[in-house]
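3.2 Worked example (two chains)
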Amino acid sequence: MDSLYQTLNKEWETSTSEDRKKLLDQVLKDYSKDYFELFGISKDLDMEFIKDAIRDPYIKLALLLHPDKNKDKLISDSAVELFKLVNTAYETLLDVDKKRVHLATLAPKPSKSTNTSQHNFTRESNSTYSFTSFSSTRSNSSSSSSSNHYRRDIKAGEIIKSNLDDITIVGDVYGMVINKLGNIKIDGDVKGTVKNNCGKIKISGSVYGTVTNSAGNNKIKGSIFGTVINNCGKNSIDGDVYANATVSNNSGNNQITGDAYGTVENNSGENHVDGRSGANVYSNESTTNETSDSSHDENVFVFGNTGSGNTFFNATTVIGSMRGGSFTINNNGFQTS
């Protein structure tokens, strides 16, 4: 179910006063009971993350529904009622005690039937719970593989966690996905945060947010617009590293198949950029093999010894020694310590 703002925004600008009146009356019924659905967040979202998750939709709703912007007599009363509902929902979710009471009103009533699995499945599949089951028999246990398979987007403010089992997301990630030992697979883009301790992270789309790994490998088929960080695993990027983006590693290798126009940095591993580079490449005791057009102003800093590859740089600083290979400098000179 879409959030209240998403529902209103789809039709608001193009609708007539009569249509807006019908829309306002309908959403008053649909969103008056569940404040979590109203803002499009998960019911199990930690209190510390709720404010950030609902602040943006709250501001948008407040601007859209403010009485000063809805003076049409046909819709003014309904707009005011919905405006009050949004404020009540916002205050409730930010108050620990009020939120607890609200959650209690949403708890499903026990069924008289001994078989309640189907009822529970239907309720959760139509809500914004972060836990989603794809079998008729639900299990809240983290050991259940089906409980970590999500065929939907992970909403902003929502947190998916696992200690051991793999996590699969078929959709985009706007919230947070965390694993300690299992693998993470994202069939979509990452616009939020993905973290792993020592498992693999595989992303079929692009990264606009942050991807961090301590020891496992990061494999990303798309391009990098945000940040990718690794400690000792390998960063493999099939796409490009765009301006203002960062790919960082401590002791593992960075392999960029596409072009690099952002920052590629390493402490003791290797940086390999197969495409063109207008980037800042920072390396320490690494092998840097990359080619750059003369039309790009490139700043390449190699702290340590350069490798044996053929390296074409525009503006280059090498602190260390040159080991083998050929070096062609197009402008700005070449400096070595």
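3.2.1 Second chain
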Amino acid sequence: MQPLRLLGFASEAALPVHAERTGRRCGEEFHQALLNEEARVQEKIKTADIAREAGAGWPLRDPQLERQTWDALQRCLRTCEAALEARIRGESGLSLPRHLALTALAEAPEGLTMSELARALGVTNANVTALVDALERDGWAAREGAAGDRRKVVVRLSASARRTARTLNQTFALSLGELLSELPVPELRLLVNLLEKLRRNAEQAAERGQDRSRQLAGHGAGGPGMGWV
């Protein structure tokens, strides 16, 4: 057999045709590779620009955008809380704060002190006192002495309240799923990370504010005719 036939060519006349096709295919692949590389570089440039604009210490701020962000956070929180409360109240007659208190207490069989419950709910001690008063009045919870230390008062759920809390947790999970159903998992993770970043920054700002308040208090009334409230 002739060498050309071993290579798959019927005759020498087929060589130019094959070479043209191979060259054209290589040219197309090279052109596509250039396009892909250009797209990759443009994406890197775009990402770098976004990162630079969003980076810490970036000198330009947008007060209007910052206010819009704050307003959007407030509206979103109020709307989500209203939707969840409507669902929970329809199932049990409980408000959302009472449901969240039941959930926190249900997860602590030994009970929670008033301060621990306040921290779990993210509210003040005064708010949690009013909340526990209402739960106790309606038979959902009771203040009792802590095991091993009767001087320490904890809040515990009644048996029926624990059963109700389990049912309401299922309702709450379904309602929360409906609220967040338009956000795919990657967006939810991004949202959580951004909110955690905002929370940490807010905590640092609060600490700086407290330090400033202590400094002002340490200076007393200041100069003549000046006082601090």
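3.3 Remarks
Confidence is low (pLDDT under 50) at residues 1-9, 221-229.
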